[in-house]
């Protein structure tokens, strides 16, 4: 069986790219198709493949400015020709699922999210104060067309898999399609190892992620202006200049991007991870639980499937005051917290469980054992 793996873009290593990494392990001979690729940013299991890029790759400076070319993404993904493939497996949060399969092939679409910035999170990206008036005007102009393309291109997928029940509901609402659920993998070997030092002893709360609008780092920053306790922020992204430009109290530290090898220790020594956005799924709460540390999370989205009332503390309003109140409640809540329950919760989302779920979906699509077709044991 000849397999094509399709991913939106390969520029930064985040949760979606970890999913692609696990898919590459399942299909060791598969080729990769993506809009753009910045060489050297991905792990070897991805970099060592045949990677085909679209015409967008030839645009100077595209790797740092690709979001500006969003209206060209549908045309770019449709420009690929996949003759000779038996299975197309897309990993999509933007346009990857819109690739055109060759005659006789089957298309299995793994969906991290429908195009969130054109559907339910439009105002998080393009609302007042989020971007300039010309950019908002342009986004409003292309939104109906991109929504229509997003809906119509879903017809080219034979079977959908959502990364959570939350996203399965959005697939039904926006595209009118049913989807199975296979949760993304967590690298438990890195995070679930027994700690060699005390946990939660760093005294800080941790926020970790890309500085994207919907992740709402601004809520954490505003909340901790009123709290006399350390906040460490890991990451960077498109909102970095806006979020770091003003004066902040000295107990708020920006660490930038940190090496992967340092992340388990940062999680393990934090009092808790702060999760302020409404995520489609969310890998970081599981990584935190895998190290034995709890989560303080906004109670909406995929986090409701990964964090329990015994492994995390929820706040119901996406506001700084609600988060600050939860942090103040944390001391009393933590008295009943058990790290072993958090680690057990994280183990439910292993890479092995993800890969088994994907192979079951492939077999259901093809009507015969996919492992033998793919050359897997």
UniProtKB/TrEMBL annotation:
GO MF terms held by the record: glycosyltransferase activity
InterPro entries the UniProt entry points to: Glyco_trans_1, Glyco_trans_4-like_N, Glycosyltransferase_grp1
Provide the top EC class.
transferase
Give UniProt keywords alphabetically: Glycosyltransferase, Transferase
Source taxon at top rank: Bacteria
SUPFAM superfamilies attached to this UniProt entry: UDP-Glycosyltransferase/glycogen phosphorylase (SSF53756)
* Protein name as annotated: Glycosyltransferase
Q: Organism source for this protein?
A: Hyalangium rubrum
């Amino acid at each position: 069986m000849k397999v094509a793996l399709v991913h939106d873009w390969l520029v930064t290593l985040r949760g979606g790219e970890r999913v692609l990494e696990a898919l590459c392990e399942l299909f060791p001979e598969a080729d990769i198709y993506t809009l753009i690729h910045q060489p050297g940013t991905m792990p070897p299991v991805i970099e060592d493949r045949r990677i085909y890029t679209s015409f967008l790759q030839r645009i100077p400076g595209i790797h740092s400015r690709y979001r500006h070319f969003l209206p060209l993404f549908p045309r770019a993904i449709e420009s690929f020709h996949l003759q000779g493939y038996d299975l197309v497996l897309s990993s999509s949060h933007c346009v990857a699922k819109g690739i055109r399969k060759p005659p006789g092939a089957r298309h299995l679409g793994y969906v991290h999210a429908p195009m969130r910035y054109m559907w339910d999170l439009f105002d998080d990206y393009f609302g007042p104060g989020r971007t300039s008036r010309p950019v908002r005007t342009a986004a409003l102009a292309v939104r109906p067309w991109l929504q229509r393309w997003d809906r119509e291109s879903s017809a080219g997928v034979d079977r959908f898999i959502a990364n959570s029940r939350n996203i399965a509901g959005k697939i039904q609402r926006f595209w009118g399609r049913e989807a199975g659920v296979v949760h993304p993998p967590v690298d438990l070997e890195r995070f679930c190892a027994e700690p060699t030092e005390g946990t939660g002893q760093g005294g800080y709360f941790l926020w970790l992620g890309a500085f994207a609008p919907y992740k709402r780092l601004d809520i954490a920053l505003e909340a901790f202006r009123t709290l006399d306790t350390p906040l460490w922020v890991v990451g960077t992204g498109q909102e970095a200049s806006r979020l770091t430009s003003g004066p902040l109290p000295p107990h708020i530290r920006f660490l930038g991007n940190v090496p992967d090898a340092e992340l388990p220790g940062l999680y393990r020594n934090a009092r808790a991870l702060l999760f302020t956005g409404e995520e489609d799924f969310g890998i970081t709460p599981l990584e935190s639980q895998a190290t034995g540390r709890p989560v303080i999370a906004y109670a909406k989205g995929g986090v409701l499937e990964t964090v329990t009332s015994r492994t995390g503390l929820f706040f119901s309003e996406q506001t700084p005051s609600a988060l600050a109140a939860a942090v103040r409640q944390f001391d009393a809540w933590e008295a009943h917290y058990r790290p072993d329950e958090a680690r057990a919760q994280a183990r439910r989302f292993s890479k092995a469980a993800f890969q088994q779920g994907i192979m079951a979906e492939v077999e259901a699509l093809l009507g015969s054992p996919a492992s033998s077709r793919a050359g897997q044991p």
